[in-house]
Amino acid sequence: MKNLTDSFVFLSRWPSAGSFGFNIDILSTNLINLSVVLGVLIFFGKGVCASCLLSDLLDNRKQRILNTIRNSEELRGGAIEQLEKARARLQQVEKEADQFRVNGYSEIEREKLNLINSTYKTLEQLENYKNETIQFEQQRTINQVRQRVFQQALRRALGILNSSLNSELHLRTISANIGMLGSMKEITD
């Protein structure tokens, strides 16, 4: 164990010019490491807040859209169940059609077509409702994201404007505007 400790002590006494060595001074290495970590965090952490807000907003929107899709799928499942009932009724009607073929074949055929058409119309209406809901939610999400981005850009612009305007620049701007108004008044007289 002593040999291992002696080898590290020996390595720490190597001259630093032109070679690598171990820096055993814990305080200076920790300060360097902390300053590097803080620098990286500050540099890369600037845009995190805005992206957090947008990602939270998009996640919430995504959940609402997924819930809407689930609801639409449940409605679709109900329509499929109705379709199965209609098919069962269709089979029953077909059996009755065999019994009453002589008396009312055309009437039964018409009822069969009406059942199929009404079922397909119901399915189409449910599909259209699902698509309209998805499009509406997407448009609403896009509008909200646009509004958030515009608000953040406006806040940043106001922040930059407020930080760059000092009292001397403000007074010079006012004086220049007063001078322009005075020259406009002289032109109109």
UniProtKB/TrEMBL annotation:
InterPro entries attached to this UniProt entry: ATP_synth_b/b'su_bac/chlpt
PANTHER family according to UniProt: ATP SYNTHASE SUBUNIT B, CHLOROPLASTIC (PTHR34264)
Membrane topology: Single-pass membrane protein
Underlying gene: atpF
Additional observations: In plastids the F-type ATPase is also known as CF(1)CF(0).
Family that this chain belongs to: Belongs to the ATPase B chain family.
Protein task: F(1)F(0) ATP synthase produces ATP from ADP in the presence of a proton or sodium gradient. F-type ATPases consist of two structural domains, F(1) containing the extramembraneous catalytic core and F(0) containing the membrane proton channel, linked together by a central stalk and a peripheral stalk. During catalysis, ATP synthesis in the catalytic domain of F(1) is coupled via a rotary mechanism of the central stalk subunits to proton translocation.
Compartments in which it is found: Membrane; Plastid, Chloroplast thylakoid membrane
Keyword Ion transport: yes
Assembly information from the UniProt record: F-type ATPases have 2 components, F(1) - the catalytic core - and F(0) - the membrane proton channel. F(1) has five subunits: alpha(3), beta(3), gamma(1), delta(1), epsilon(1). F(0) has four main subunits: a(1), b(1), b'(1) and c(10-14). The alpha and beta chains form an alternating ring which encloses part of the gamma chain. F(1) is attached to F(0) by a central stalk formed by the gamma and epsilon chains, while a peripheral stalk is formed by the delta, b and b' chains.
Listed transmembrane segments: 31-54
Coiled coil (UniProt feature): 76-103
Superkingdom to which the source organism belongs: Eukaryota
Species of provenance: Hedyotis ovata
Protein name, entry field: ATP synthase subunit b, chloroplastic
Cellular component annotations (GO), alphabetically ordered: chloroplast thylakoid membrane; proton-transporting ATP synthase complex
GO molecular function list: proton-transporting ATP synthase activity, rotational mechanism
Keywords, sorted A to Z: ATP synthesis, CF(0), Chloroplast, Coiled coil, Hydrogen ion transport, Ion transport, Membrane, Plastid, Thylakoid, Transmembrane, Transmembrane helix, Transport
